[in-house]
Design goal:
Elements (H helix, E strand, L loop, with lengths): L1 H127 L1
């Protein structure tokens, strides 16, 4: 009977140890599940952040392309302004030349008119004599 009691005590001790081990394992499983849930949340946040970062990177690329286009337009506008300024200066030089030519022509016309008046007076005088 004593052997049975001893075997029973051993079995009870083993069962108690097994229950304790099972409870510890269950607690560890619970802790691991919490850690797994936290890891899943972190992974989801990381994926979301990665998606947002990718969208922002795409937007940055779009803005950089737009900026390059605007820079090209600005350079073209600068070239057009420079060309227009050069054309304006050429036209101003041409205007000065035309005005000078006009003054020369007006002076020549004035001389010719005076000569004509002089010839008219002489012709009138000859016609009356």
């Amino acid at each position: 009977m004593e052997a049975k009691c001893s075997a029973l005590d051993t079995a009870v001790s083993r069962a108690t140890d097994a229950e304790t081990s099972a409870a510890e394992a269950q607690a560890e499983v619970g802790s691991l599940q919490e850690k797994l849930a936290c890891a899943k949340q972190l992974l989801m946040r990381a994926r979301k952040d990665a998606n947002e970062a990718e969208k922002k990177a795409d937007r940055v690329n779009e803005v950089e392309k737009e900026l390059e286009g605007v820079k090209e337009e600005l350079e073209a506008a600068k070239r057009n302004i420079l060309q227009a300024a050069q054309e304006k200066m050429a036209l101003e030089r041409e205007l000065v030349e035309v005005k000078e030519e006009k003054e020369r022509i007006e002076a020549r016309v004035s001389v010719l008119q005076k000569q004509f008046e002089s010839y008219k007076v002489k012709a009138s005088a000859w016609l009356y004599f």
